[in-house]
Design a protein that fits this description.
The chain is built from 14 helices and 35 strands. With 977 residues, it is of the alpha+beta class. The protein has a 31-stranded mixed β-sheet that branches. It has a four-stranded mixed β-sheet with strand order 32-35-33-34. A hairpin with a 6-residue loop joins strand 16 and strand 17. Helix 6 crosses helix 7 and helix 7 packs across helix 8. It starts with a helix and ends with a strand.
């Protein structure tokens, strides 16, 4: 027995130590060729039959193209016989020493081992539930491993190594409900470390544990996953940690959850590919309380905190941001929908996002010149973010703008379509960097500090952005194209502010301005300075981007509308260089309003300002103007009252051609432009004016100015002069000075041509026909109004000894003759009243005397009733015409069967009146009587001397007084020899 046992033991040992290793080695190489279709080599196989420990050393597996696929320095397996009692394959330990694997994606995009997973025939279905073999591994350890990943679809090819790879699993078992532990640790590159630890149950599957990734390079991942993206990740590292739980239900369904996750980013830097400036840098960012579940496809993040990020952004000429152009392709990605039966899309929610200590450099390049903005000390908090882009997000932001201003905003934002409603506050904003948005041709903003408060709304439609609230602008200064101060104020408060973008527009309900300055100037050509504000050519419009609104052109002015500007304690610098002697004055303590000011509206703005000049003077400026197109329609006037002419002499020097010794001045100036045509009115009222020396350059007047002024003075020593001018402002032939002097000469000529009107102005009768004296038809006595007018004319002319008056009595051959006939008939009737009592008898007597008793009876018979006459024969045409004429002249018979007495006596009176004859001599006598009445009125006490008035021969009437039926006699004025 002992020998047998010894022999058996020897045979067992020989088989175990020598035969089994050879068989195993042969089978490994054979099965690699048959099953893996790849060549394998094994340097050495060892087996200890007594300890049931086997080892494979120097294993190498080549890929189909001969490249390295897998290497193994040493594999040690220790089998325990005790497992056979449980019908279980049990290993005490499996140790893998320094394994090396190469995972490749070939140039055609397929994995190098794809053929191993492509079954040549479909597996047979047995109808029985497949079960894992009963296996127990007390310890599985991998040490010093190395995994190399190569992607040959990239050029150059992408390569990454995971090493050293250490993996240890305890109590790995396929027996139901038995659990064990596992630990996986490896490195990626020189710095990244990965540790995976936890517990596992194989049957049913249940994995739980924790994964930790330290110091992973985001640059390498970005280079592999987004190597063709327009953005480049220049720098950045990350730490990741989370707990997981993966379970398989009794029905075989897999569920997975992630809890207590965290992600930390360090030193992230993003720039455009090939660029030399970072668009975004994030020194530190952290996401906490990350959780996820599957198949629910939910991801949640408790909080994201970003520290001191820095960003660069701009808007280009097409109204797109640099980020938008980089993050979107030429075509929008097609919308993806989940087919039936596939897992539903993932949803994500973030409790809060906090950004602290951020900064940004922004620029709007859609306008020229561009508008840069610097944001510092930026703090941002967003709450309730999710993949539901239509859900509102609570937002709050605070920052400093351009190092001086402070801005805050709180409210809600809807990401898609983009909408927002925020309460905003801004203090201390320097307006100069933003002057492009309020650009008006020929005007420049030099200074201004603004503050606003109100509601900011963003909507998908038009307007894209809208602000409603109020604001304040202090220390404002605006200059014109010549750098002359045009407008300024210390403080300005605006209420009812509404600003919109796309379309761009700024509307203000009311503006209150304190301690302002305004420049009103008229140049040598007579052009008002505010009329030059929009003289530049408008820039061309830029077409709208596809699918967008109508953004303004890059150089387009920002439209401005102000309903009312209230001005207090304002100083106005007024100058007029259109005069012979340039005029200027400083107006102080001015107040007033400018209403409906607009850079685009066709409606005119209204200007009303009042102030003081020197100690006693008063000034007022009013009118209308169109900033958008001043040559289309502008009407501006300036009024001065009781201004000492010792300081305001240029106007009188301009009008009269002489210096002024003394006097006070009232001045009205109005410039009206209608459809590019200028109509100007100058009215000068000089009191106690005394002329001095002649002004150099005024010799072109060409008229006896001193004599003209003496004639224009009233009895109180006042001159009231109006000078209208007219011309096309943008015509090369238009010269303001020439047009003015022509108008001035015309006024002096009009004084000579219409002297009575000139004199009438002195007592308030500015009428063209004061040289006409109206009389009632047939009469020569003066009416009371005419008597009063003649008395005033005589009083005004009495002091002008060099003037004489000629009077022409005139008659009207129709109306005067009719009136005389009527008066003569009445005299005949009155003469009969002494002997005849009734008017009927008087008319019958006069008719018989004038015509005959037979004619009287014949006339009476026409008005007596008569039987219906027989039908007369058709009369001849001549007879028919004669009867028709007589019927028109003779009243029709009384319609009743009675004598028509009223018609009869009316007919008698009409024929008696027509029979009265008025001759031309009688009309001339009437004219002489009228002339005598006029002469008597002019030469009455206090009037003209009789030697200065002359009655001319009578003549028929030539003119009529306006709006009157009176018969007009005429007067004319001439210089006495």
């Amino acid at each position: 027995m002992a020998a047998t046992a010894t022999a058996a033991t020897a045979i067992y040992a020989i088989l175990g130590f020598f035969v089994v290793p050879r068989v195993v080695r042969f089978q490994i190489e054979k099965l690699s060729r048959e099953m893996l279709h790849r060549e394998a080599k094994v340097a050495r196989v060892r087996f200890n039959p007594f300890t049931l420990t086997g080892a494979v050393e120097g294993f190498e597996l080549k890929d189909r193209d001969g490249a390295d696929l897998f290497k193994l320095h040493r594999l040690v397996v220790n089998v325990q016989v005790s497992g056979l009692l449980r019908r279980t394959l049990k290993f005490r330990e499996i140790t893998i020493d320094r394994p090396e694997a190469v995972a490749r994606i070939l140039a055609d995009g397929r994995p190098n081992i794809a053929d191993l997973f492509e079954a040549e025939t479909a597996p047979e279905t047995t109808g029985e539930d497949s079960q894992l073999p009963r296996l127990v591994v007390e310890r599985l350890a991998v040490g010093g491993g190395r995994l190399e990943f190569v992607d040959e679809t990239r050029s150059p090819r992408f390569q990454e190594t995971l090493s050293p790879l250490d993996f240890e699993v305890h109590a790995l078992s396929t027996i139901p409900e038995e659990s064990g532990e596992h630990v996986l640790a490896f490195a990626i590159g020189d710095r990244t470390r990965v540790r995976w630890s936890g517990r596992q149950v194989v049957q049913p599957l249940h994995l739980s544990g924790k994964l930790e990734v330290k110091d992973v390079s985001l640059v390498r991942a970005w280079q592999y996953a987004a190597r063709e993206h327009a953005l480049e990740l220049r720098d950045g590292r990350a730490d990741l940690a989370f707990s997981y739980d993966v379970r398989q239900s009794a029905a075989g369904a897999i569920t997975a959850s992630l809890e207590d996750g965290s992600l930390a980013l360090h030193d992230v830097a993003v720039r455009p590919r090939g660029g030399d400036e970072d668009w975004l840098t994030v020194p530190a960012a952290e996401a906490r309380s990350i959780r996820a579940s599957w198949p629910e496809s939910r991801l949640g993040i408790g909080e994201i905190r970003v520290t001191e990020p820095r960003a660069v952004a701009w808007i280009d000429s097409s109204r797109r941001t640099n980020w938008e152009a980089a993050l979107t392709g030429a075509e929008d990605a097609a919308e993806l929908t989940s087919p039936s039966g596939l897992p539903k899309p993932w949803t994500m929610s973030v409790g809060a996002v906090d950004i602290a200590g951020g900064s940004a450099r922004l620029e709007d390049r859609s306008v020229e010149p561009g508008v840069p903005v610097r944001l510092t000390e930026l703090g941002l908090r967003l709450e309730n973010l999710s993949t539901d882009l239509a859900a509102p997000v609570t937002a709050s932001v605070a920052a400093r703008v351009n190092d001086t201003a402070e801005v805050t905003a709180t409210g809600s934002v809807v990401p898609d379509p983009l909408a927002a409603e925020l309460t905003v506050m801004l203090r201390g904003l320097d307006l100069v960097p933003f002057r492009t948005y309020a650009a008006v041709p020929n005007v420049e903003l030099r200074s201004g500090v603004a503050g606003i408060e109100g509601k900011l709304r963003v909507t998908p439609g038009a307007p894209w952005i809208r602000f409603d609230g109020e604001g304040e602008v202090n220390a404002l200064e605006v200059v014109d194209a010549g750098a002359n101060r045009l407008l300024a104020w210390d403080r300005c408060r605006a209420r009812g502010v509404r600003m919109t973008l796309t379309p761009n527009r700024l509307r203000i309900g009311e503006v209150a301005v304190d301690r302002a300055f305004m420049k009103i100037a008229i140049d040598r050509e007579g052009t008002l300075n505010v009329s030059k504000l929009a003289a530049g050519e408008p820039p061309p419009q830029t077409p709208s981007p596809a699918g967008g609104g109508t953004p303004p052109a890059p150089n387009a002015a920002f439209p401005l509308d102000v309903t009312k500007i209230a001005i207090r304690d304002t100083r106005i610098d007024f100058t007029d260089e259109s005069l012979i002697l340039p005029f200027g004055t400083d107006i102080h303590s001015a107040s007033g309003t400018i209403q409906d000011l607009s850079t685009t509206s066709a409606a005119a703005a209204r200007l009303v300002l009042e102030g003081r000049v020197a100690d006693t003077g008063y000034v007022k400026a009013d009118g209308t103007l169109r900033i958008a197109d001043p040559f289309a329609s502008t009407d501006v006037g300036v009024t001065f009252r009781d201004v000492n002419m010792s300081t305001l002499t240029p106007y009188l020097a301009h009008f009269a051609g002489y210096a002024v010794e003394k006097g006070n001045l009232d001045l009205d100036i109005r410039y009206r432009i209608d459809d590019r045509r200028l109509v100007g009115d100058h009215r000068v009222v000089a009191k106690d004016l005394e002329l001095g020396e002649k002004v150099e350059g005024a010799s072109g007047v060409g008229l006896p100015v001193r004599l003209a002024i003496a004639l224009l003075k009233d009895k109180d020593g006042r001159i009231d002069l109006q000078v209208p001018i007219e011309g096309t402002v943008d015509s090369p032939e238009f010269a303001y000075r020439t047009v003015f002097w022509q108008a001035f000469k015309k006024i002096l000529a009009n004084v000579a041509m219409a002297p009575f009107r000139a004199i009438g102005r002195l007592f308030g009768r500015d009428e063209e026909d004061l040289d006409l004296v109206g009389f009632v038809a047939g009469r020569s006595d003066l009416l009371a109004p005419e008597q009063e007018t003649l008395s005033k004319l005589a009083a005004e002319l009495a002091g002008r000894s060099g003037i004489s008056v000629d009077v022409e009595g005139r008659f009207d051959p129709v109306t005067d003759a009719e009136a005389l006939r009527r008066a003569r008939l009445e005299l005949r009737i009155d003469a009969k009243r002494q002997s005849v009592e009734s008017l009927e008898e008087i008319l019958e007597a006069l008719y018989s005397e004038t015509f005959s008793p037979e004619n009287l009876e014949a006339e009476r018979s026409r008005f007596m009733p008569a039987a219906a006459p027989a039908e007369p024969a058709e009369p001849r045409p001549a007879e028919k015409k004669k009867r028709k004429k007589k019927a028109a002249e003779t009243p029709p018979p009384h319609p009743k069967d009675a004598f028509d007495a009223a018609g009869f006596y009316d007919a008698l009176r009409a024929q008696l009146l027509a029979a009265e004859n008025v001759g031309e001599a009688e009309l001339e006598d009437l004219s002489r009587a009228r002339a005598g009445a006029i002469v008597a009125a002019l030469t009455a006490p206090g009037g003209l001397d009789a030697s200065r008035v002359k009655a001319l021969d009578p003549a028929p009437v030539k003119r009529k007084k306006q709006g009157s039926d009176l018969v007009a006699s005429e007067m004319s004025m001439s210089a006495r020899d």
